[in-house]
Amino acid sequence: MLLTPGLAAPLTAPTQARSDQAGPPGSPAPQHVAILGGGAAGVSTAYFLRTRYPEAVDSGRLHIHLLEPSPSLGGNIRSLATDIPCSGRTFGPQTLRLASPQSLLVLGLVDELGLAGHAMTTRQASLSSGMVLGGEPLLMSARGLNRRFADDLLGLNLGSLGTGLAAIARAALEPVIPGRGAAAAGQAPEDDETIDEFARRRLGRLMAAGPMSAMAHGVYAGDSRQLSMRSCFGQLVRIEQHHGRLLGAGLVPFSVSDRHTVHERLPGLVASLLDGGPGVGLREDFRSPVQAYLSRTPAALVDPVDLAAISLLGQFPLFTGAPLKGVPWTRKRSPFTGEDPTELALSVLRVGPKRVLSLRPDRANDRAPGPSDEAAIPPAVHGNQALVDRMAHILKGSPNVHIHLGTGPLSVDRPGPGGPKYRVSAGSAVSVPADHLVCAAPAGSLADTLAPALPGLAGALAAVGATNAKVTVVSLLARGREPFSRTDTLGYLWPAGEQEDSILGVVLNSDIFSEHTPSNVFQATVMLGGHMPPPEDPVASSLHRVRQLTGLDLADPRLELDLAQWTGAIPQYTRGHHHRLVDLAGRAAGERVHFVGSAFTGVAVPQVLTSAFMAARGIAAELGLHEGLLAGVDGQAGLGYHLRPWDTFAELAAVTP
Ligand SMILES: Cc1cc2nc3c(=O)[nH]c(=O)nc-3n(C[C@H](O)[C@H](O)[C@H](O)COP(=O)(O)OP(=O)(O)OC[C@H]3O[C@@H](n4cnc5c(N)ncnc54)[C@H](O)[C@@H]3O)c2cc1C
């Protein structure tokens, strides 16, 4: 391992030329993978390559170079421990949603990184999200709506009552609004609707301006009138395409009372695996939890491609046997605990999918903060950042993995005949050969980095990365002498029409994980800015908004405040994003360049990890490390899997023995 400590410190020798690193005589020439960007996407691509193809890395056939211009790994994932049990400060992802089968990948990772004991998941009761409408908090549940109607009625607030009833009446017509068929999937650029257009057409103007605008704020910090429905909430688009409507078509859970219903809704491959076959089937201990999981999962949230691909490729041991020819089946054990990574998954499967997960930090004063460099000691856990810290810990202890931190701006060129395909450099200090590139950084920034080697990609990358949302995060923590009262909600979002101070939303951290948080501690995280102007006084706005939601006046000395400002943190998938990706993938075809992470195909951490997993798989296929049976999954330019998920599933099914 070569750790280049940063520009300010003296640099260790540049990475040696590839000829110095050849394996034993007769062995294939070593291959070098350069990963540009050390956020969750880059670190996990390196980790999946390292842990899923250990022989190739250990033998020196595969060298992994992880290059990060800033002095630390993690990108947008940043969290700190506090001296209060279970209470960290989280400036990036607050919670990881466990609603999609991609969460199996997250759970597998959490477990194999030895973090299962730190996993906090929500109680079923605390699932409701809220929204601020008409200046008042509204819980998006039957109870919350009833309460609002009752309040409006008793307060003779007839305008608000009428608006609420009109919104629900219009949304109830949704099943009879004709679907757009193939056009719904946005195959042609002109068919790509914004979130607002899609929501107006299907659910009506009031739902578009309220919940859908709030959702765009909550996930993308973006403007629902600019963002592409297909790229941001593609599952709903696919449901309309296949069923002609949303309500009653995939937004209801599977029924396990009739197994045929499950089978009809799950495409053939997964259904046949549920039944088992010669030497193939669900592990016995998973059979009933998986059935229960499916019975509680709205079909809209089950992406069979993810379930099949992730499970079958051995990431997560749902199945016995080797379901696909040539795909090795290995049961992973945690490198930290040596345990079979099933217990956490079983517990989550038992409770159901509508949950979120967050990593409980160690207490700051129990252990020195910061990842440990000592190979034997796993780094302290300070919240969700531990996912990256633990993967980095494994990478740092690994031969033939080279981590270059604090490189400053990177540049990729082509060294010419006889040399490697690419060379990645930063001034005269870093010079790394690369046969394969993984681009795990914001697209706009990559346009400059790749321009010398791949000028044809620069324009396409600049177009993909044209818009990013800045987010201001205010973390509030108060300790009281008395217990704080709790609400039953994850937090509240503000739609665009409710704006005064560029507020996006408030996450009520201590309420989400109330059973883990001391009762005299209140914690909330406020997000502001996004596509709106930067907030003038984010702290004052945050205190005001928390008071509006909870009645708590936190402007007293018990309060601890932290503020983080992310510039360009959340890529904006505006109308036409999918077609810009297709253009990029076409230009990159055959160049051994993979694009992973939030800049391209999904901003939530589970999606980022999935793209990294698939890129590692694609590189392994290019290297001939497996038979490459799954052409669609192995991807074209690292994007194929994400661009064509339903076709990919058909290919998966076709190769099933
Ligand atoms: C405030 C906030 C709240 C969020 N909340 C949630 C949540 O609750 N749940 C959830 O699932 N997700 C959430 N997310 C999203 C999630 O954090 C990100 O999608 C994820 O961390 C992105 O990882 P990444 O590696 O793709 O990108 P990044 O984290 O952006 O990492 C990219 C890395 O590339 C480096 N880099 C930049 N330019 C170059 C270059 N030219 N060459 C090489 N390297 C370069 C950067 O320094 C950085 O380290 C949130 C994000 C933010 C900002």
Got a strand count?
Answer: 23
Strand content: 15-25%
CA-CA gap between termini: 41 Å
Q: Looking at the structure, what is the overall shape? A: globular
Main beta sheet, described?
A: 7 strands, mixed
CATH topology of the domain at 2-75 and 364-466 and 575-655: FAD/NAD(P)-binding domain
Estimated structural class: alpha/beta
Please list the strands of the largest sheet in the order they lie side by side. Answer: 9-8-19-20-21-18-22
What would CATH call the architecture of the domain at 2-75 and 364-466 and 575-655? 3-Layer(bba) Sandwich
What average pLDDT do the residues reach? 78
Fraction of residues in helix: 25-40%
CATH fourth-tier homologous superfamily of the domain at 2-75 and 364-466 and 575-655: FAD/NAD(P)-binding domain
* Name of the CATH first level of the domain at 2-75 and 364-466 and 575-655: Alpha Beta
In DSSP terms, counting alpha (H) and pi (I) runs of 4 or more, how many helices? 24
Residue windows where pLDDT falls under 50 for at least 5 positions: 1-22, 250-270, 276-280, 321-332, 627-637, 645-657
What are the bound molecules?
A: flavin-adenine dinucleotide
Instruction: Evaluate the radius of gyration.
Output: 25 Å
GO molecular function, one term: oxygen-dependent protoporphyrinogen oxidase activity
Protein name: Amine oxidase domain-containing protein
Pfam family, one: Amino_oxidase
Region (Disordered): 9-32
